[in-house]
Amino acid sequence: MNETAERVACPVSTPLGTFTAIYEGDVIIRVLFPGESPGAGVPREDASLPFAVQMREYFEGKRKSFSLPVSLSGTKFMRDVYEAAVRIPYGSTASYSGLALTAGYPRAFRAVGNAMRSNPLPILVPCHRVVHKSGGLSRYSGGTGVKSFLLEMEGAAR
Q1: Is 15 helix (H, G, I), strand (E, B) or coil?
Q2: Catalytic-labelled residue, pool 52, 68, 127, 130
Q3: Per the domain annotation, does 16 fall within a domain?
Q4: CATH number of the domain that 132 lies in?
Q5: Residue 128 belongs to what domain range?
Q6: Is pLDDT of 12 > 50?
Q7: Which of 77, 83, 128, 142 is the most exposed, having the fewest neighbouring CB atoms within 10 Å of its CB?
C-alpha cells in the first residue's frame, strides 16, 4: 500500500443501513458494517466511487459479483480463504469445512471460521455465504440478522 495515498470513505445506503468502504488511493482496504465508524485518518467522503454504484446494484438485485480493486490483508492462509470465498456463487452457500477444502486446507475448518470473522471486506468477500455444515447460520460479524437478510436476498436461505 502507498503510505502517501489519501484515505477516502465511501458510504452507501442500503436496506440494512450504511455500509462504508475505506479506499486507500484507488484500492478498497476495508468495508465497514452499518454503525461502524471509519475513525480518524479518513478525511474525505465520496459517495460516487465505484463501491457505491456496485453496492446499490447488488442490493437492487442487478449485480451478482463485484469488480472492484481491493487489497486483501492478512496471512497467506487468510488470503487463500478469502479468495476461495469469493468463488462461492451468488445464491449459494458453502460450509466451513467445504471452504477449507476449496482453499487447500482440508482440515482447517475452525481456522477458516476465524479467518471469516476477520474478513476486512464483508459483502465483497462474501463471508455471509459460509454457513455451518448443518445449514445453520453460525456467527457473523454483521450479526445473524444481516447474514439472514443477505442470504434471503440472494435466494440462498435454507
Answers
A1: coil
A2: 127
A3: yes
A4: 1.10.10.10
A5: 76-154
A6: yes
A7: 83
